[in-house]
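hey so u asked for the seq, here:
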Amino acid sequence: MFDISFGEMVVIGAVALVVIGPERLPKVARTLGHLVGRAQRYVAQVKADVSREIELDELRKVQGEISQAARQLEQQIHNEVQLAQAEVDKMRQEAEANAASIPDFSQQLRNDVLGEAPPAVSAPVVDLFSQPLAEPPPPVFTPEETEFRSRQLDLFADTAPTPHAETHHP
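ran it, structure tokens below
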């Protein structure tokens, strides 16, 4: 802040000691320190407020730009949707006009071939779920598979614990 060298500070301290006196010098120095601290805090607070205001202005500018871009995008999408809707309506009108100009050949063919409307077809209704399903046949194993399975059952049967077996350890 101020450009004061150590030599200048010694001269200021010596003059203050002579002018103020040794009894009041500590009190004056303490008061001067408090005032300098307050001034520094005030300057720091003003700097922080100014930087906050600058950031807020920048954010407002960015917000305005983004909202403007959003409005433009919304307008473009709205225009594209209207164009697409107009195309769909045009295609629908053309399809309806084409459909109206095509005669119903199926009815005419029926009348020409059969001479009348086709008879209703009747078929017996079969209920597939009323009959019980047959059980699947039991699996057929080769002799090797049967022997392997019986060995597995024997292994598990040997390791089964007895229900009331108690072991006493002294």
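The mean pLDDT is 80. The radius of gyration is 51 Å.
lmk if thats what u needed
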